[in-house]
Amino acid sequence: MRRPLLRGGLRMRLVVAFALVAVVATVTTGALTFRAARTDLLQQGQDTVITQFRDGVDSLAPSVAFPPSRTDLLSFATGVSHTQRTANWRVMASYDGMTATSRPGDTFAELTREMRESVRTKAATVFQRVSTDHGPALVVGIPVRFGSTPFDGSADSSGLAVFLTVSQDSEQGYVDALVAAVERATVPALVVAVLLALLAARGVLRPVRALRRATRDIAEGHLETRLAVNGSDELADLSHTFNDTAAALEESVAELRRMEARARRFAADVSHELRTPLAAMAAVTDVLDEDAAQLDPDTATAVRLISQETVKLARLVDDLMEMSRFDAGAADLHLDEVDLAESVRRSLAARGWQDTLATLLPPPDTARGRVDPRRLDVIVANLAGNALRHGGEPVRLAMSVHEAPGAGPVAVIEVVDSGPGIPDDVLPHVFDRFYKSDTSRTRTEGSGLGLSITAENVHLHGGTITAANHPEGGAVFTVALPLRRDR
Amino acid sequence: MPRLLLIEDDRAVREGVELALRRQGHDVAAVATGEDGMDRLRSFRPDVVVLDLMLPGMTGLDVCRRIRADSQVPIIMATARGDDVDIVVGLEAGADDYVVKPVQARVLDARIRAVLRRVGGPDSGDGMPQPETHDDLTIDRAGLTVARQGVPVPLAPSELRLLLLLSASPGRVFSRQQLLEAVWEHSYHGDSRLVDACVKRLRTKLGEPPGQPRFIRTVRGFGYQFSRFTQPPRPAAR
């Protein structure tokens, strides 16, 4: 089942099914009732007519002179028709090719040749239902016999036969009324069926809808979502299963979060604990550097080593602390409106890179925006430093301002180096913490957190950062920062 | 030789910083608690205080406020990264500048010298400039005093230097970065909260009504400017 059919489709399908059932049931019942009633009705009417006709014939036949003259036939036919004055009988008597009808000039068109023949040869009461232009009619034929018991089969046929045609309009009227009644019954039955279908659909759809809503809530991260379970049908079972699954999921996620929080907490605590001894060591590195020259060469080397590595260690712990703050969601943006081009220029100049990098910056005051100047400095310094360390010179830094649809103006900073580029298997991991692209290189200048911190700083601004390889070689890092001029 | 009071509870850090700063040419008195610090403040009469924010007992913030209650001695806070809130609270409590630990001795020395330069004597050279008036505010650039309606306003060194810079060019807009470089001698990418906190303290001391500053105006999206007042001054004229 494809989705478009299911959307609101369960209800529709139930309605259609119920309606079909209602129609089929009504029509079938109606048809059967109709058939039985119709047969009964017609049979009964026909039996009455035949009995009355035979009684009439039996009572008048003995008084007919034999062989009858035309006048005798006429009076006989008229007499028979008058036995049932209200029934509008048309009677015809025939004898040896001579006929007389109760109504003058009646052609008795309904009487078929077969019937006439049948009455003559079988010598028994014969009837036929025919339909005429004026509606259905019953035609009955009775041969008149000699003897006191004319119908015991022993008596001889007299050759006199009487025929009756009677309209069956009233019977047809009853039948029509029956059909109309069945038709009329179908409509309310259909309405009731549709209402029942809607009711049933509601009963099924409500839990289904609740399930769908709950599933969506879970997908959106509301793992505490549970369903209220009513009854004990299959849907209740499903709801139970859903609740169990959600509970298990919530438990797993909570456990994972606990573990992750512990790990991050540990990293933060370690950095914090390292900071105080480092503060003491960092304070005296300058003393070591100044006095190293007066020491013997080995001690001087050792002292300089301690001094240099202390500075690096301090930077690493600083980066770790920064990372912990990002993880804890404690990193704040201190926005200030600055000229980003000027800011980038100052970042490079502060590190003596103003002539090392080729820059393409927008003219003054065209790239103004609200950013955190310190974090922008970190972003630019890390990207430029990374390109100089791992890529190859020349390194180009370009900045431009674009109008992003729905996001306002965006500053795009692009740093391109001329190195070998980034291997494809490394590319997805360049922003990972401590990810080393070259396993043989045990340590680099940076802390291994530079690009991770850069990415975090960009994301904190609501911006994006991507790493790619330039078609002409070299790595390309692209940062897009929203300028937030509206606020 | 600048006299420097160091209040730092960790023994190793205290000894390291003391050693390094003494070698940079400072006369250092180092104490471990805020209470001792307050005692030494009176007897030692330092030119500058370097104050650890995280102190046992009396906190660095308390010390900062107690010092500011009757002294405008420059205060440099030493703080650990990750204590962002403390920085703002510390600046609002009256600290002039801050450094993030671990800090190298020469960085700390540079900050100390910068903060001391702020209260350096009057500009030598082209004579004694006359006290200038801006509305009911009197600024004496020679005597480095500020008075409002004739009542002296005691200003910490960063506040004084900021006011002198802004009021020297009424109407001119300074960006926070410019002020950071000029007043605090920080890099262009320094912490602009230093400027905001200092302006806030300055406005309070000048008795500016909240939300309607008369002297130091905020120029949204750019920075700050000192109001231009028409001459001659008419105190409280509106």
From TrEMBL, chain A:
Where does the HAMP domain start and stop, copy by copy?
202-254
Compartments it resides in: Cell membrane
Q: Could you say which enzyme class this protein belongs to?
A: transferase
What keyword terms does UniProt attach to this protein? Answer: ATP-binding, Kinase, Membrane, Nucleotide-binding, Phosphoprotein, Transferase, Transmembrane, Transmembrane helix, Two-component regulatory system
Entries under SUPFAM superfamilies matching the protein: ATPase domain of HSP90 chaperone/DNA topoisomerase II/histidine kinase, HAMP domain-like, Homodimeric domain of signal transducing histidine kinase
Query: Domain of life of the organism in this record?
Result: Bacteria
Name the SMART domains for this protein. Answer: HAMP, HATPase_c, HisKA
Enzyme Commission identifier(s): 2.7.13.3
Annotated transmembrane regions: none
Q: Where is the Histidine kinase domain?
A: 269-485
Query: GO molecular function of the protein, one example?
Result: phosphorelay response regulator activity
Q: Which reaction does it catalyse?
A: ATP + protein L-histidine = ADP + protein N-phospho-L-histidine
**Where is it predominantly found?**
membrane
Task: Kindly provide the name given to this protein in its UniProt entry.
Answer: Sensor-like histidine kinase SenX3
What organism is this sequence from?
A: Actinacidiphila cocklensis
TrEMBL record, chain B:
Task: Locate the DNA-binding region by residue range.
Answer: 129-228
Domain Response regulatory residues, every copy: 3-116
- Kindly give the SUPFAM superfamilies that the UniProt entry links to this protein: CheY-like (SSF52172)
Instruction: Give one GO term, molecular function aspect.
Output: transcription cis-regulatory region binding
Can you name this protein?
Two-component response regulator (YclK) (Possibly involved in arabinogalactan metabolism)
Q: Which residues form the signal peptide?
A: none
Q: Which residues carry this modification: 4-aspartylphosphate?
A: D52
For the keyword DNA-binding, the answer is yes
Q: Which UniProt keywords apply?
A: DNA-binding, Phosphoprotein, Transcription, Transcription regulation, Two-component regulatory system
Quote the InterPro entries the UniProt record gives.
CheY-like_superfamily, OmpR/PhoB-type_DNA-bd, Sig_transdc_resp-reg_receiver, WalR-like, WH-like_DNA-bd_sf
Q: Which residues form the OmpR/PhoB-type domain?
A: 129-228
Give a single Pfam family match. Response_reg
Would you tell me the Gene Ontology cellular component terms?
Answer: cytosol; protein-DNA complex
User: Does the UniProt entry include the keyword Transcription?
Assistant: yes
According to its UniProt entry, the protein's GO biological process terms are: regulation of DNA-templated transcription
Q: Which gene encodes it?
A: yclJ
